[in-house]
Amino acid sequence: MVATLHSVRKSPDAEGDDYKTLIGMARATSDHAFNATIWDVLVDPSYQGQGLGKALVEKMIRALLQRDIGNISLFADSKVVDFYQNLGFEPDPEGIKGMFWHPK
Ligand SMILES: CC(C)(COP(=O)(O)OP(=O)(O)OC[C@H]1O[C@@H](n2cnc3c(N)ncnc32)[C@H](O)[C@@H]1OP(=O)(O)O)[C@@H](O)C(=O)NCCC(=O)NCCS
């Protein structure tokens, strides 16, 4: 699932196409049963601090819940842990740890 945010500038010409610019996105992968992971939550720096990132994540949560997917996880950079905690995410529920494998 991909959610996108666009800024839309009306064409001065009544018949002309509007100008759409991508200013934010979020992505989720899921098993279509119980679990989803949110990735790549991004808002263009010139549009940050206006509630758009929060709206994007809340929209994604609502869309997943509508599909009965209620077990939602993500990986948070240390700079955005508070952002996600504000949205109801908690670190390491039930002692679950993210684990990584790297080629040695
Ligand atoms: C993180 C990001 C998506 C937030 O988007 P945003 O549109 O600026 O955030 P919002 O304006 O919706 O902020 C919602 C709330 O979170 C808070 N917040 C925003 N960024 C925060 C941060 N880095 N740390 C803590 N709180 C933050 C805001 O103050 C606001 O609080 P409020 O509801 O009490 O007013 C955006 O800064 C971004 O794209 N960052 C670069 C990419 C990135 O790090 N993505 C996360 C990948 S793990």
Summarize the structure.
The chain is of the alpha+beta class. The protein contains two helices and four strands, in the order βββαβα.
Molecular structure report:
With 104 residues, the protein is α+β, with helices and mostly antiparallel strands. It has a single domain (2-88), classed as 3-Layer(aba) Sandwich (Aminopeptidase). The chain is built from two helices and four strands. The protein has helices at residues 52-66, 81-86, and strands at residues 2-9, 19-30, 35-43, 71-74. It has a four-stranded mixed beta sheet with strand order 1-2-3-4, with helices on one face. The protein starts with a strand and ends in an 18-residue tail after the last helix. The model has no long low-confidence stretch (mean pLDDT 95). Bound molecules: coenzyme A (COA). Coenzyme A (COA) binds next to strand 3, helix 1 and helix 2. GO terms for molecular function: N-acetyltransferase activity. InterPro entries: Acyl_CoA_acyltransferase, GNAT_dom, NSI-like. Residues 1-104 form the N-acetyltransferase domain. This is N-acetyltransferase domain-containing protein. Keywords: Acyltransferase, Transferase.
